[in-house]
Amino acid sequence: MSKRFVNIFSFLLITSVIVLSGCAQGGGQEKDEKKPIVFADAGWDSLRFHNSVAKIIIENGYDYETKVTTGSSPSTIEGLKKGDIDVYMELWAKQFGDTVSDAIDNGIIKKIGVNFDDNKQGFYVPTFVIEGDKDRGIEPIAPDLKSVKDLTKYPELFKDPESPKKGRIVGAIPGWAADKIMYAKYEYYGLDENFTYFRPGSDAALTTSMAKAVERGKPWVGYYFEPTWIMGLYDFTLLEEANFSEDKWQDGYKCEFPSMDCIIAVTKGFTDRAPEVTKFLKNYKTNSEIISLALAYMQENEAEVDDAAKWYLKNYEDQWTNWVPDDIEEKVKKAIK
Asked: Domain 120-250, what architecture?
């Protein structure tokens, strides 16, 4: 055998090894397509709840591993834009203005669905103030109280313990954007004449004041929002304002708070990488009531978000089973038994 023939044979052998290695890497590429799906956790419980629901379905139904990246809202949005994060289950897009809208317009991230769009905020009172509570022997205290304007008739009902001649409006937390808005409304509706505007020091202080009022059967009026655990645990009524319009809102917030689409967004390329998961996420849709109840479940039972997700999946099959094919549904049901 000539040296030249040996060299050619060696070259062909090496080439074959490289080709076969490439084929093996092709299998690895298929594996890469199943690389873990990374969710954004920007720190609030409703987002974590949605992450857990989606993770349980994706891991057990679609056979993907999942991970979570924790950070601030800006950092997790940046991670989504860079592709370090794959999925944002509850993105309040309007709150971030051009940061998110430009990324969507430019195809850097994709909006694939609306998780929920019935979020609310404003002036709330315990429902028993208006309707009473027969089970607790509470008669309606202010049956004609329907709107924020109507509060001007009832300062004595919501007496301020520190200024008994006036009522008390419990406002938003100092530093929250809602605080500026609520104070402007307080002045616009003429509530500043017979009510004080009290700013609690923290969200815990605010929710504690609400819970105590309900548990004691006492009147309370102030700011809050939904979906939240306290709205799932207790019965509150949002007082009416004029329907939202951009002109009224820009002119001193003289209408109801706008509801925002809380979208599901994914990073560029994700829809091609995981089309079946994308289809599931496109179908994923909840509402404020369900989310509030799930958060209330966590609060009452000192449960983790994974526990709340399983509670939801077991109790609301009529909702989530519409998001997935029958075979995926059966896999998930089997996993959460």
From this structure: 3-Layer(aba) Sandwich (3.40)
